Amino acid sequence: MIHVAWPWMAALAPLPWIHRRVRADAQPGGAAIFLPFATTFESGRARVGGARRITRVLFSAIWILLVLAAMRPQWLGEPLPSPTTGRRILLAVDLSGSMATQDMANDASRLQVVQQVAGRFIDSRRGDQVGLILFGTRPYLQAPVTADLKTVHRFLDEAMVGMAGPQTAIGDAIGLAIKRLRAQPGQPASGRGAKHTVLILLTDGQSNTGALGPIQAAHFAKQVGLKIYTIGVGAPAGSGPFGLGGNNDLDEHALRQIAKITGGQYFRATDAHTLRAVYRRIDQLEPVAGRAQWLRPTDEWFLYPLALALLLSVPAAALGARSWL
Questions:
Q1: Residue 38 has what pLDDT?
Q2: Residue 44: CB partners within 8 Å, gap ≥ 6?
Q3: For the domain that residue 246 is a member of, what is the CATH number?
Q4: Which of 24, 69, 133, 195 could pair with 92 as two cysteines, CB 3.0-4.6 Å apart?
């Protein structure tokens, strides 16, 4: 069907006639000049007058066509379904003191690797919404679930070890995720809207502080339908020289329990390569599943009146020049 995008541009149509009327009213009146030899030019005047009338008609048509083009006529096709994603992802990143440990490849710290790989994961989202929780001794919502992925990525890059405290409160981080999801506009009071949200929790240690235990928090998450994928970060224990070093503090049992209770999965990321593989696996586990939106294909028709106005301008300009010679 035909649709006009900017119908208010039609208000420009009477401008030339208003301008002509104002000019006519501004000209001073007076007696006409008597020319006794004017009859000799009668035929010439008739021809010039006819050319001017045709020119006026052409310029009027050109102006109407320009106004019509400015109104942006469009042709709207039949509505077509367009699938969209309904996936929302919360990243919870541990910033406790141990995340500064440089036991990853190329002497990179655990946080640096998480920032690098998780940043690419954020950038690769297409239509998804991502939020960011930073936690240590206490959890903080750095970015709510949003489609502004550049801002979330920037907040992740700006995170520093220790800015949320030196300890690890995994249970409180999960509790904050549940609280924020319940507080989002349009969510039911029961929090069941969280079933469309995935929490990815990255930590390199065990929960040693906080008001809420990790397992208790996992049960609360299960009640609201929040699925949690846990990722243990750090080199394997005893991977350093003489069998020393590596991550000896990681509580893999608790992380597995959290994932199992909520229907998620636990992963171990010992370097950037394995962490990237974890994110690819999460993409497979959580495919994009959105509800369809209906879109109308739109064809712009303003070029047609614009082209016709351009064609009419050629004879209009020629007749206008002749009428004034």
A1: 47
A2: none
A3: 3.40.50.410
A4: 133
308 shares its domain with 271: no
* pLDDT over threshold 60, residue 274: yes
Average pLDDT over the chain reads 79
The DSSP string of 269-296 is E-SHHHHHHHHHHHHHHS-----EEEE-
- Alpha carbon distances (Å) from 114 to 248, 293, 305, 311: 19, 35, 56, 62
Both 209 and 226 in one domain: the answer is yes
Quick one: 213 exposed, middle or buried, by C-beta within 10 A (0-12, 13-18, 19+)?
middle
| pLDDT tens column, 150-179 | 999 999 999 999 898 889 999 999 999 998
Token pair of 17, please?
């006639």
State both tokens at 90.
């919360």
- What's the domain count of the chain? 2
Give CA–CA dist 253/215, Å, rounded. 11
* Residues of the chain by 3-state class (helix, strand, coil), percent to 5: 50, 20, 30
Q: What is the pLDDT of residues 68-102, one digit of tens each?
A: 999 999 888 777 665 555 678 899 999 988 888 88
| In a shared domain, residues 253 and 283 | yes
State which residues form the domain around 140: 83-292
Report the amino acid identity of residue 179: K
In the chain, what is the straight-line distance between the N-terminal and C-terminal CA atoms, in Å? 47
Q: Which residue has the tokens 């599943």?
A: 289
Backbone phi and psi for residue 287, each to the nearest 5 degrees, phi listed first: -65, 155
Enumerate helices (H) and strands (E) in the chain, giving the number of each.
9, 11
